[in-house]
Amino acid sequence: MTINAIRVSQTGGAEELKYQSVEIGEPEAGEAKVRHVAVGVNFIDVYFRTGLYKAEKLPFTPGNEGAGIVVAVGEGVTNVKIGDRVAYVGSPGSYADERIVPADRLVIVPDEVDLKQAAGMMLKGMTAQYLLRQTFKVQAGTTILFHAAAGGVGLIAGQWAKYLGATVIGTAGSEEKANLARAHGFDHVINYNTENFVDRVKEITNGAGVDVVYDSVGKDTYMGSLDVLKFRGMLVSFGQSSGSVPPFDLGLLSQKGSLFVTRPTLFHYIAKREELEQTAQDLFDVVAKGVVKININQTYALKDARQAHEDLEGRKTTGGTILIP
């Protein structure tokens, strides 16, 4: 059977994303075939396309999340059946009409959650879950700083952290993005192009600093992020959109207040089936309750994946981005 997919034959710019016909087989034992309703686009896809993160082999189909309908199952599969509405994250190869997925990576999407929403929220939403509920347990009285507040993870995390009772400070690159963040739970938003975020955070917190900084920007922000933490505060570095954090002297953590730094990734938090189910269920619960609203602000046809990547890298996107096969 032939399907349409985006293929990358060599790493490089967005022009390497090619819309092609490829052969697809039937699911083997432990696998399921999913017909996509929508596919999520994330910055990690850019990292694989450029070669910053290494794909298992070339050529490859990018994409780490999607949602759709199960159309076939292999031997021994019991957690999903034909006709189920499902979503997944962390199984590379989603930029396609259909694909085969390890069945134990699929989660059932509740009826209250739209499949297009699910496709655009699994990676970002479960990232927000592990950041706020596991890496550092945000609760009433916590003060946080979240960089890239108007990004896909930021808009989810702002709402969720506010629901948990935190004081939520964010950074954004324009007044338009700052207003968007304010509408999604952020109490204070700092425009890093017109203000020094370190000075503003100290001003907002009356010099006390924050309990935790969530930083997906990397090179441009990590030192300032350390400077706004309270004693024994935590820097959670979970991305590097401005470039990798360079090596630094661990003695700085002592000098700046016995600080903690961690570099987590979602896939280590959902490696076990029960962890995946719990993380997804927590996300589905807050979305179904209306506590967290998922904004799919950009939609492209699958064949236009190149444009989607160019817009993402050009910081022209906010919230979630999906491809429609």
From TrEMBL:
Keywords: NADP, Oxidoreductase
Domain Enoyl reductase (ER) residues, every copy: 12-324
Record Pfam families: ADH_N, ADH_zinc_N
Gene Ontology CC terms, in alphabetical order: cytosol
EC number in record: 1.6.5.5
Record CDD domains: QOR2
Lineage, highest ranks first: Bacteria, Pseudomonadati, Pseudomonadota, Alphaproteobacteria, Hyphomicrobiales
Family matches, as SMART domains: PKS_ER
GO MF, one annotated term: NADPH binding
The protein's name: NADPH2:quinone reductase
